[in-house]
Amino acid sequence: MTDENSLVLRQDDAGVTTLTLNRPQARNALSRAMLKALHRAFDDIATDQAVRVVILAGAGPGFCAGHDLKEVRANQEDQTYAEALFAECAELMLAIVRLPKPVIARVHGIATAAGCQLVATCDLAITADDARFATPGVNIGLFCSTPMVALSRNVTPKQAMQMLLTGDPIDAATALRFGLVNEIVPAAGLEARTAALASQLAGKSPLTLAIGKAAFYHQLELPLAEAYDYSRQAMVRNLQTLDAQEGIAAFIDKRPPRWCGH
How many Å apart are CA 137 and CA 145, to the nearest integer? Predict the structure, then answer.
């Protein structure tokens, strides 16, 4: 029996926390236990002031193969199980979006179904050049309706429908063209490039990043005029912070800023 504490590994280094999905033998399939472990990890990070940036990675040959179909099959006739599974998955995705720190997906191998959903949910995604992405539920009679939510907020409707209706995998170059990922790197350089990006973000004001991330996702759901009104208010509040005052002063004085997080 798998120890739930080992399903998600955590490593902290200079303000950057790496969470690694740790079911390599199952391509890091998201069992209910895995979903709960990952959600707990994000909850812990949310209140950890030492953490500035999160990297989400997968152990073994792939990033994440989606939901654990063996577990799903064993509980297929139990509607309570299905409701709990998809509710827990949705709550995890919302926890990532609401986390007041940037989350970077470090993708290799495969990212399929709910694994593709994880990539789309993270704020940024760096992928190895040999990675593959898919929402293949249609091929087994189970449309990827919940992955669709995150996917359709990253790529255009026709690109999303292409992936959802065909179930065909797309390569890293197509994922970049679709807007699902930010950058492609050789597999050998994936860890180093993701770490460099995380380190760059960790050097920013954590308060400013938190304000900006929350504002970004909130304004996406608003009509244009309301989005401008909300964003204007967010900038006014941001300008009153000590970090904004320090940042402006440092720019004018031509010196590095000293962030205090307030």
Answer: 9
Q: Which residues contact 50 (CB under 8 A, 6 or more apart)?
A: 12, 15
Per-residue pLDDT at 3: 60
Token pair, residue 163, equals: 């992936």
Confidence of residue 77 (pLDDT cuts 50, 70, 90): confident
Domain 206-253 has CATH 1.10.12.10: yes
Residue 118, pLDDT above cutoff 60:
yes
Class in CATH terms, 4-202: alpha beta
Bridge partners for 17 per DSSP: 12, 54
- Torsion angle, alpha carbons of 248, 250, 254, 256, to 10: -130
pLDDT band at 1 (very low <50, low <70, confident <90, very high): very low
Domain boundaries, the chain: 4-202, 206-253
In this model, does residue 83 exceed pLDDT 70? Answer: yes
Cα Rg of the chain (Å, integer): 19
